Prior knowledge:
Layout (H helix, E strand, L loop, with lengths): L16 E7 L5 H15 L6 E7 L8 H8 L15 H5 L3 E4 L15 E4 L10 H24 L6
Parallel strand pairs: 1-2, 1-3, 3-4
Helix pairs in contact: 1-4, 2-4
Amino acid sequence: MPRAYRVVSHHSDRPDHRIAFVCVQNAGRSQMAAAFARRERDRREATDRIEIVTGGTRPADRVHDVVVEAMRELDVELGDRTPREVTPDELRAVDLVVTMGCSASNVCPAAWNGENRDWGLDDPHGRPLAEVREIRDEIAERVDALFDELLSETPSAG
């Protein structure tokens, strides 16, 4: 089994999967991805099995207004979220680092513990709401598929 999908007993204090959603500013795509991941984790009752981290290499002061607006349409509130810097220690502690299509060159991939995937998404900053909705919906689909994949690799507690 690949290291990124190592399974730990449900009696352990460590979740089965630790995922980091990383971008430069942590003010758009990575915030949406983390919000959708938290929602999926709750919906699938996997809170004890999946840990979610989000951050940026050069965080913005706040989440982009157009992103907040697009997410509110789905009853997801990001206006209270503050972009934050992701640390090398956090990245070393995760199994999967998902970058959003932006350069995360300030974070050395050699420090990443597990797998890295780049989703190659357009930056929503400065785009019209209709385009941000398309980006948002693509992120939601990708997060859903990621959870299908991760939870199919995780045996149910029994």
